[in-house]
Design a protein that fits this description.
Length: 104
């Protein structure tokens, strides 16, 4: 069951300014605090999204990661075979070959 965050709009009770409530996704949003009865509103919370952790995971998923090394110079930490490790502004031959990663 999802956990939703609510915020007190006026006085804060023992649950605190922001509190969590376990509710079914089908339940209506709370309008009042279940503890004190004061007005509350549902907050939009950050969700937990799993993202790749390593450069090789990014590369395997088809992403290119450039890390700035100097003014106009970037290191391609996800370089594939044949790609330049360094990308230099103004030198198109150093850009990654996107045909290797973008397909229909």
């Amino acid at each position: 069951m999802p956990i939703y965050e609510y915020e007190h709009l006026k006085k804060t009770c023992s649950l605190g300014k922001v509190f969590d409530v376990k509710q079914s996704i089908k339940d209506k949003s709370l309008m009042q605090c279940p503890n004190c009865g004061g007005p509350v509103r549902k907050l939009i919370s950050r969700s937990n999204i799993s993202t790749p952790k390593t450069n090789s995971e990014l590369r395997d998923l088809g992403f290119t990661k450039l890390v700035k090394r100097d003014d106009g110079v970037y290191e391609n930490v996800t370089a594939r075979d044949g790609d330049s490790r360094m990308v230099i502004r103004g030198k198109s031959e150093t850009l990654p070959d996107l045909k290797k990663t973008i397909r229909d």
